[in-house]
Specification:
InterPro entries: Cyt_c-like_dom (IPR009056), Cyt_c-like_dom_sf (IPR036909). This protein is mainly α. It is built from 14 helices and no strands. Helix 9 packs across helix 11 and helix 11 packs antiparallel against helix 13. The protein binds heme C.
C-alpha cells in the first residue's frame, strides 16, 4: 500500500474542517463522507478560509527553506570577492604613460600646430609632416629648428629660395611654395611665442612620433640620444638657459656628430651626408 504523505493528510483534514464549518482539525469521518461537493459548496461561502498556517508548504519549498543558504566552504571565497575585483581592475586598467622628456613636452606644444598640420601630421593648411616627410626635408634636426624658429616669411625676406635639404627627394621645399601660405614664425626673437626648449620639444615630437624616425635605428639613434631622449643634455641646457640656438654648436662640440649651428636667423639648409 502506498503511504500518503503526512502533509497531504493534514491538508485534506484542514479542508474538510473548513468545509464543515469546524475550526478544529478532528472532523469525523461521517461528516467528511456526507460533505459531498454539492453540499459543501454553499457551506464554503459562509465559512472563513482556513488559516494559512494550516497549509503546509509544497515539498520543494520546504526543501529550499531547510537547505543551508550558502555552503560554509564558499564563505571564504565570497568574502575575498571585493579584493579579487580590486586586483582585477588594477591589473586591467592600463598604466598612464610617464610624461617626461622633450617628446612628451612636444606633444603638448604640438596642439598649437595641429590645426594646420593635422593631429597626426597628415597636413592640411600646413605641410605634410608624417610618413617621413619632415625628416626628408630636414635630414639634420638643426635645420628644422632654424626653420620652425624663423618661419617662411623671414626666409623670403632673406632672399632664400629653399629651406631644408637643397637636394631633397622630390625637390627642395621653397618658402611659400606649399599653398602660398607661410609657416608662421615660432621663436621669441622672430616674434613667435615659443622658447628654444619648446621648439626643440615640438620638433622632437614631429620627427620621432609623427614623421617616423626610429630612435633605435642606426640612422637616428645618435640624434635621438643627443637631442630628444629623456636624458638629452642639449634639451636640459636649453631649458636651464645654459646654451642657446646661437651657441649650441660650440657648447656641445664634444658630441659625435658635432652639432651644426642652429641660429635664429634664416639660413640655407644642409643635405644628408
Ligand atoms: C597657420 C597654419 C600653420 C601653423 C599654426 C603651423 N604651421 Fe607649420 N607650416 C605651415 C605652412 C603653410 C607650411 C609650408 C611653408 C611654406 O610653404 O613656406 C608649414 C611648414 C612647416 C614645416 C616644414 C615642413 C616641410 O617638410 O616642408 C614644419 C617643420 C612646420 N611647418 C612645423 C610647424 C610647427 C612645429 C608648428 C607649431 C609650433 C607649426 N608648423 C604651425 C602652416 C602652419
Amino acid at each position: 500500500m502506498t503511504e500518503i504523505p503526512e502533509h497531504l493528510l493534514n491538508r485534506s483534514k484542514a479542508r474538510r474542517a473548513a468545509a464543515s464549518g469546524e475550526s478544529t482539525g478532528d472532523a469525523s469521518p461521517a461528516v467528511a463522507a456526507s460533505a459531498t461537493p454539492a453540499a459543501a459548496a454553499p457551506a464554503k461561502k459562509n465559512v472563513a478560509p482556513a488559516p494559512k498556517a494550516a497549509v503546509p508548504d509544497p515539498v520543494y519549498v520546504a526543501a529550499a527553506k531547510n537547505r543551508r543558504k550558502i555552503p560554509f566552504w564558499a564563505m571564504s571565497a565570497l568574502a575575498l570577492l571585493p579584493i579579487w575585483a580590486l586586483i582585477y581592475f588594477v591589473a586591467v586598467v592600463p598604466e598612464e604613460k610617464v610624461v617626461e622628456g622633450p617628446t612628451a613636452i612636444g606633444t603638448a606644444v604640438y596642439s598649437s600646430c595641429a590645426g594646420c598640420h593635422g593631429a597626426n601630421g597628415a597636413g592640411g593648411a600646413g605641410q605634410v609632416l608624417y610618413e617621413g616627410n619632415a625628416i626628408k626635408t630636414f635630414p639634420h634636426i638643426e635645420d628644422m629648428l632654424n626653420f620652425v624658429y624663423a618661419g617662411s616669411q623671414k626666409y623670403v625676406a632673406a632672399g632664400l629660395a629653399t629651406y631644408g635639404d637643397p637636394n631633397r627627394e622630390g625637390g627642395a621645399h621653397k618658402p611659400l611654395g606649399y599653398n602660398g601660405n607661410p609657416m608662421p614664425q615660432q621663436g621669441e626673437k622672430a616674434g613667435g611665442g615659443l622658447n628654444e626648449a619648446q621648439i626643440l620639444a615640438v620638433v622632437c615630437h614631429i620627427r620621432y612620433d609623427l614623421a617616423g624616425a626610429d630612435p633605435k635605428s642606426e640612422e637616428w639613434a645618435a640624434e635621438y640620444e643627443a637631442w630628444c631622449s629623456p636624458d638629452s643634455e642639449i634639451y636640459k641646457a636649453l631649458e636651464s638657459g645654459s646654451t642657446s640656438f646661437d651657441t649650441i654648436d660650440k657648447d656641445f662640440s664634444m658630441l659625435d656628430p658635432k652639432p651644426i649651428a642652429v641660429g635664429t636667423e634664416p639660413r640655407l639648409g644642409t643635405s644628408r651626408k
